[in-house]
Amino acid sequence: xxxSLVFEQPLNERIRTFLRLEHLFSQFxxxxxxxxxxxxxxxxxxxxxxLNMVGRGDIKRESIKxxxxxxxNLKAFLEIPNINHGKLxxxxxxxxxxxxxxxxxxxxxxxxxxxxxxxxxxRQRLTVPGGLCDFDLPAYAHWLNQPYESRxxxxxxxxEPLTVLRDSVNLILQxxxxxxxSIDEIAESGFYQKNIESNQACLLIRVMLPKGSNIFPxxxxxKHRFSVRFLKTQNPAHRPEQEKQDVQFKLxxxxx
Length: 256
What we know:
Elements: E1 4-10, H1 13-32, H2 37-55, H3 59-77, H4 85-103, H5 117-125, H6 138-144, H7 148-159, H8 163-177, E2 183-187, E3 191-195, E4 204-210, E5 215-221, E6 225-232, E7 241-242, E8 247-254
Antiparallel strand pairs: 1-4, 2-8, 3-6, 4-8, 5-6, 6-7
Helix pairs in contact: 1-2, 1-8, 2-7, 3-4, 3-8, 4-8
C-alpha cells in the first residue's frame, strides 16, 4: 500500500472522463466484494452511473484514440537501448488487446444493458428521493433478499459488457501515471506555481503528500501554467485556510 496521499488534476476533458470512470469502476469492485444488500445497491448505482457516462459521449472512440496514441509513443521507445523492452512489449501487447476488444464491441458500450427492465426501473426511481423503498419496487426488494452468491453472479453478468472499457481505462491511466517520476518540490507559504512547457502536453498533475498530513492541495491549471495552494481545516464544515508554512511535497507532471 502506498505511504502517500495522491491528489490528481486532469488537464483535458478526455483524461477527466477516464478518471471519473476509474472512480466508478473502483466503486463497483469495492461493493461487489461485500455481501450486504446496501453494497449490492451501491454496486448497481455504480453500473448505472457508468452507463450514464458512456451514453453522453463516444467513450469507445475516445478510448481507442488514446490507446492508439499511447501505443504509437511506446513503440518509438523500442528503438531506445537500456530500457526494459520486455515490460514495454507487454504494455504494447495489452494496449493492442484492448484496442481490438473495443473495436469488437457492436454499437455503443453497454448497449445490451439498456434493455434490462430491472436496471431501467431502478434508474427511474433513483430520481425520486427515497424512491427505492420496498413498496416502490417490490421486485428489487425481493432480489436484494436473495443469497449473496446469487446476487454476485447477476452483478458480474451485468458488468460483463463494461469489462473491456474498464481494462482500457485502467491501462490508459497506468501508462500516464508511470510516464513521469515524481520530484521533490517546496510550496513557499503554502503556494506553488509552475509553467507548463509548450513543447510537451501535460495530461495529468499529481501531487503527493505523506499519509496523515493535515493539509490538502487545491490545484488550478490553465494552458500555460498551474498552481497549487495547500489548505488546512480543523472542521470540514468550515472554509479551509491556506497553510502559512512552507510545504514539502512530491510533484509529477505526466505527459505521455
